[in-house]
Specification:
Blueprint: H1 2-55, H2 60-71, E1 80-84, E2 98-106, H3 107-110, E3 126-134
Antiparallel strand pairs: 1-2, 2-3
Helix pairs in contact: 1-2
């Protein structure tokens, strides 16, 4: 009877050895996707809050401050905030015109690149939030 138990135990070990890398890769993919989606949501919220500040007549400092409040002190603190608050000649946009805010960051700065060992990299990707509102 003991001779039959050893081959089964060996085959279980072999099956685990073969499936474990797949399970680890799958777990890392789920974590990577979750971190990227969370960053995307925060960038979208930051751009919306910054655009709201711009729509209410705020200047570039107010827009930047509104975005930074949402982004916090974590990995997203290095995001760049771009706002269109003036026309081509540099005059502030009048009431009724649209203001535009984009908050962006390279993906590999927003979340760790957990899948690069599989050849799937976020290097070169940019995550961004974009909001357009009408100025009051």
């Amino acid at each position: 009877m003991q001779s039959r138990a050893h081959p089964r135990r060996a085959s279980l070990s072999l099956e685990l050895l073969l499936i474990l890398p797949v399970l680890v890769a799958l777990a890392l993919a789920v974590i990577q996707f979750g971190l990227m989606e969370s960053a995307n949501q925060r960038l979208a919220l930051a751009s919306a809050q910054a655009a709201r500040a711009a729509a209410q007549g705020g200047d570039l400092e107010d827009v930047e401050r509104a975005a930074r409040r949402v982004l916090g002190e974590g990995r997203l603190r290095h995001a760049r905030v771009h706002a269109r608050l003036s026309d081509e000649s540099g005059r502030p946009l009048p009431s009724g015109e649209t203001v535009e805010v984009v908050v962006e960051i390279p993906a590999d700065e927003a979340a760790p690149n957990l899948l690069r060992f599989l050849g799937v990299s976020t290097r070169g990707r940019v995550l961004s939030g974009h909001t357009v509102m009408r100025k009051e």
